[in-house]
Amino acid sequence: MAVTVRAVTPAVGAEISGADLRGLSDSDFAAIERAWTNHSMILLRGQKLSDDDLLAFSRRFGALDPPPNQERGRISPPGYPDIYVVSNVLDGKGDPIGALGAGEAVWHTDMSYLDTPPDASMLYSLEIPPSGGNTWFCGMQAACDALPADLLAKIKGRRIKHDGTYNSGGYLRKGVTPTDDPMAAPGAWHPAILRHPANGRATLYLGRRRNSYIEGYSRVESDALLEALWAHATQPRFVYEHVWKLGDLVMWDNRSTMHRRDPFDGEARRIMHRTQIKGSHKPVAFAA
Ligand code: SIN
Predict the structure, then answer these.
(1) The domain containing residue 42 runs over which residues?
(2) CA 139 to CA 27: how far, in whole Å?
(3) What digits encode the pLDDT tens for the residues 224-250?
(4) What number does the ligand 1 atom closest to the CA of 244 have?
(5) pLDDT surpassing 90 at residue 129
(6) How many domains does the chain have?
(7) What is the three-class DSSP state of 34?
(8) Residue 49 within any structural domain of the chain
(9) Which of 41, 168, 208, 270 makes an SS bond possible with 105, Cβ 3.0 to 4.6 Å?
């Protein structure tokens, strides 16, 4: 049976049906890859993946990146260093088995504090709470296309500093010195508007709000401009809310989306396994 692709919003996301990720033909894989390039985020429900299956599917997109350094470092299931666990569950010693706890994870794109951030990330649901913990995606190409002219003029040709101090849960990354000064913070500079290497579209690349800074402005001017850009980009018309079911696999393009997660009841259990596809290109400015 051939796979089918249905957009879930005009701005971001497509649901793919008719695919078992454990045994994809090359033509079905090509259709999935095309949907990911065109829609920036894809959803496949009802999967039954072991960690080896998740790794095998992930590697079809390219080499994997190691997990990000989170509040307790890099937490992986034993024997699977390329898998990153997102979970609030505690082990027998009372230590979290994963990162991000049960709180909100604010809007961000993954690891943009690196010079070459990962192209993509995948999240596979193993245990989900009865409610909460929904993950939201924002289409940054649609947001870029709809940028008001005054905002566009103010960021055209400029770069943004992306922070590596705090993760999206607000936790300090292990071994990093706390700071609220974007210039002192570890991180990377990237063009405010990127050219997507696969589809050629312009994409607004904001990364994460905390410790962000736009070059060429005072801190006050940069903060005001960032507030306006974030308010524009996160409007409901650019956003998809994903309500998880067991066996969902979601994959997003880190160059053309941001994501955030709702908090959930800390007494409930949520376990997700995540992989990341290594960056194929340094972010390049959209020159038009
Ligand atoms: C993440 O930011 O990668 C975690 C998203 C989630 O837990 O839904």
Answers:
(1) 4-277
(2) 26
(3) 999 999 999 999 999 999 999 999 999
(4) 8
(5) yes
(6) 1
(7) helix
(8) yes
(9) 168
Measured in Å, residue 209 CA sits from the centre of ligand 1 at 16
Strand pairing partners for 16?
5
Give the CATH number, domain containing residue 229. Answer: 3.60.130.10
Tokens describing residue 270: 């949520």
Tell me the CA–centroid distance for residue 215 and ligand 1, in Å: 29
Give a yes or no: residue 153 inside a domain: yes
CA-closest residue to ligand 1 atom 5: 261
**Domain-embedded: residue 112:** yes
State residue 1's pLDDT score: 61
What residues are in contact with ligand 1 under a 6 Å CB criterion? 86, 100, 105, 123, 135, 168, 259, 261, 272, 274
262 neighbors 101 (Cβ within 8 angstroms):
no
> Which of the 8 DSSP states describes residue 236?
G
Pocket test for ligand 1, best of 270, 274, 275 (most atoms within 8 A of CB): 274
Average pLDDT on 27-52 reads 97
| 202 found inside a domain | yes
% of the chain surpassing 90 pLDDT: 90
Task: State the Cα–Cα distance between residues 81 and 156, nearest whole angstrom.
Answer: 39
- Mean pLDDT taken over the chain: 95
Range 184-223 burial, b when 16+ CB lie within 10 A, else e: ebebbebbbbbbbebeebbbbbbbbbbbbbbeebeeeebb
The CA radius of gyration of the chain, in Å to the nearest whole number, is 18
Q: What pLDDT is attached to residue 287?
A: 87
Name every residue whose Cβ is closer than 8 Å to that of residue 184 and which is 6 or more positions away in sequence. none
